[in-house]
């Protein structure tokens, strides 16, 4: 226990001191919370009956991580590396997260996009055993029963739920959506220290419209077309109500729902429960942070922003909403008035009052366009409205042409251009072209990582290197979740999200050097998450939605309070406790994501300390 965190070691989520454990032998080694393999000390091996079950040499966590990294590097491709990491997570939480933390830039694309998308597409073929909670729309009456198997009210802090309809740009993946719920939770732990044994990944299996899955004899999900309408809504509502009843302090994160449902579900539950949709709000938050940083570098202000968003789906509208709300707050005007500064373009062209089949989320941005004829193109809009911000969420590669970019740069000294579509092959433009077409003046952030770009853009034509930022949701959503969990927020409000955005924007490396990225990289995300959590908590307290008591208000003390409750991949000593009176966690009775098949499931009896 360090002097810094001793003040808050009494907190339920404190990471100081030992971990209570009431099991021994194989049961202990088969639990990823307790297992530390060759790192178990001589004392632990005797105390917990591990002698004879482990080789004699005792290794450090660093030695284990080095060995695991060599094993990782030996795998032939990224999908095999992803599978290896999943296996490691099954065995030992600390070692798994230590390995990821040590190599976060290298491994991020393997545990998340794009490799996780490939794993999800192959879910039924790679399947070895379940990890997460599978809820079936044909068994709606069993939802509460099935959720209840994952613990008691105090056991779960963070739930990620997906219906698998719109996964990572690869579309409907049915029950394979459980892997995106798992992946998001990995990022919450890696990036913000959410305790991995206090999270719950869920998939709502409503069928699939992916014909390849329906025709695949190995497909593991409900082999029917997607259920929609009243039955679907009842299923989602049953899940939300059961989750709130069973885990009343848990934060619910909706992930990769389809376009017709994502915003509708979020708007339905947001006024009632602490919930978040990363595709809508997370994308909006991180993009707004990049925009705010870019405007600051260009000596512009949010209130003077004119933005064109190319791609009016869930992400594009989510970005528009975040920017709209911030403009409204800055100028003290209505959201409807602020929306006039934002233009949305989709496949037919600019969204206008004449555009057919607008969603209710898109309608606020529909414009009256006086030129007549066909709905105007992206180039038409850029030439007429002279935006200082251009965002791409279209998945249309090359959509930001030289003519469009030069037309934008002609009216703005430092245009902010964000081609965000994933994966890389679907980007609207690459940073090298954007910088070349604007003589290095464009402020660029992308949806995938790109290498630095060199060019003669310094004083007197001196060659400089510009680092494009990656507009990665993982810089933002884990910190928002951490703040909401720690203050036990009743709701996640607009002010909490804007506070998170400002926290990220103020940490922009570009504020000190305009050739640096607009946003912090994932390798710096844990201190960024502390800052985000602090701003979220302070906003929640100010708005009266924080329910946790005795939250510090002084900045340094609040940061210590937050860090004390962030899980770290370190081996804390195991403390032997008796079974009688021990927690279910200490007795390895909780269903833990990633744990090896438990003795209870195998029909044998756990060996407890007595």
TrEMBL record:
Domain Malic enzyme N-terminal intervals: 89-270
Residue intervals of the Malic enzyme NAD-binding domain: 280-541
Cofactors: Mn(2+)
Alphabetized UniProt keyword annotations: Metal-binding, NAD, Oxidoreductase
Classification via InterPro entries: Aminoacid_DH-like_N_sf, Malic_enzyme_CS, Malic_N_dom, Malic_N_dom_sf, Malic_NAD-bd, Malic_OxRdtase, NAD(P)-bd_dom_sf
CDD domains listed in its UniProt record: NAD_bind_1_malic_enz
NCBIfam families given in the database record: PRK13529.1 (NF010052)
Family: Belongs to the malic enzymes family.
Protein name: Malic enzyme
Protein's organism: Apiospora hydei
């Amino acid at each position: 226990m360090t002097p810094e965190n001793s003040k808050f070691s009494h907190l339920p989520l404190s990471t100081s001191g030992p971990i209570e454990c009431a099991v021994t032998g194989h049961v202990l080694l088969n639990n990823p919370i307790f297992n530390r393999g060759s790192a178990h000390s001589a004392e632990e091996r005797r105390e917990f009956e591990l002698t004879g079950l482990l080789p004699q040499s005792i290794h450090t966590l660093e030695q284990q991580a080095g060995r695991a990294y060599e094993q990782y590097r030996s795998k032939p491709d990224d999908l095999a590396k992803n599978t290896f990491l999943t296996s490691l997570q099954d065995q030992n939480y600390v070692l798994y997260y230590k390995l990821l933390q040590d190599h976060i830039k290298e491994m991020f694309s393997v545990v998340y996009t794009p490799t996780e998308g490939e794993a999800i597409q192959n879910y039924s073929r790679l399947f070895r055993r379940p990890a997460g909670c599978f809820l079936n729309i044909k068994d709606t009456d069993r939802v509460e029963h099935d959720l209840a198997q994952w613990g008691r009210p105090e056991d779960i802090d963070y739930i990620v739920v997906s219906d698998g309809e719109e996964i990572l740009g690869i579309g409907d993946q049915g029950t394979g959506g459980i892997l995106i719920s798992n992946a998001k939770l990995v990022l919450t732990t890696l990036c913000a220290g959410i305790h991995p044994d206090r999270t719950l990944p869920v998939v709502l299996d409503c069928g699939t419209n992916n014909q390849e899955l329906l025709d695949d004899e190995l497909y593991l999900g409900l082999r029917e077309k997607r259920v929609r309408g009243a039955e679907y809504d009842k299923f989602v509502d049953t899940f939300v109500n059961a989750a709130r009843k069973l885990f009343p302090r848990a934060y619910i994160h909706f992930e990769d729902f389809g376009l017709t449902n994502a915003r509708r579900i979020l708007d339905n539950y947001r006024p009632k429960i602490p919930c978040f949709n990363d595709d809508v709000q997370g994308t909006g938050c991180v993009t707004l942070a990049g925009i705010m940083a870019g405007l600051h570098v260009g000596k512009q202000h949010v209130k003077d922003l004119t933005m064109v968003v190319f791609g009016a789906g869930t992400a594009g509208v989510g970005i528009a909403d975040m920017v709209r709300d911030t403009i409204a707050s800055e100028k003290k005007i209505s959201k409807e008035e602020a929306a006039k500064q934002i233009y949305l373009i989709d496949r037919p062209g600019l969204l206008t009052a004449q555009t057919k089949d607008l969603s209710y989320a898109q309608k606020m941005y529909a414009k009256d366009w006086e030129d007549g004829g066909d709905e105007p193109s992206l180039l038409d809009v850029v030439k007429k409205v002279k935006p200082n911000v251009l965002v791409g969420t279209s998945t249309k590669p090359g959509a930001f042409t030289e003519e469009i970019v030069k037309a934008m740069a002609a009216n703005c000294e430092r245009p902010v251009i964000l081609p965000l579509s994933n994966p890389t092959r679907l980007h609207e433009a690459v940073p090298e072209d954007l910088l070349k077409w604007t003589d290095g003046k464009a402020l660029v952030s992308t949806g995938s990582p790109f290498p630095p770009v060199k060019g003669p853009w310094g004083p007197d034509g001196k060659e400089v290197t510009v680092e494009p930022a990656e507009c990665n949701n993982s810089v933002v959503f884990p910190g928002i979740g951490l703040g909401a969990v720690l203050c036990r927020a009743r709701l996640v409000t607009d002010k909490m999200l804007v506070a998170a955005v400002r926290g990220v924007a103020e940490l922009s490396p570009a504020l000190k050097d305009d050739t640096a990225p607009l946003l912090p990289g994932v390798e710096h995300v844990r201190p960024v998450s502390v800052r985000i959590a602090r701003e979220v908590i302070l906003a929640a307290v100010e708005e009266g939605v924080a329910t946790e008591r005795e939250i510090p208000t002084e900045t340094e003390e609040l940061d210590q309070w937050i860090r004390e409750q962030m899980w770290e991949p370190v081996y804390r000593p195991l403390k032997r406790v008796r079974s009688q009176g021990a927690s279910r966690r200490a007795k390895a009775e909780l269903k833990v994501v990633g744990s090896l098949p438990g003795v209870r499931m195998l029909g044998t009896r756990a060996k407890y300390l007595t």
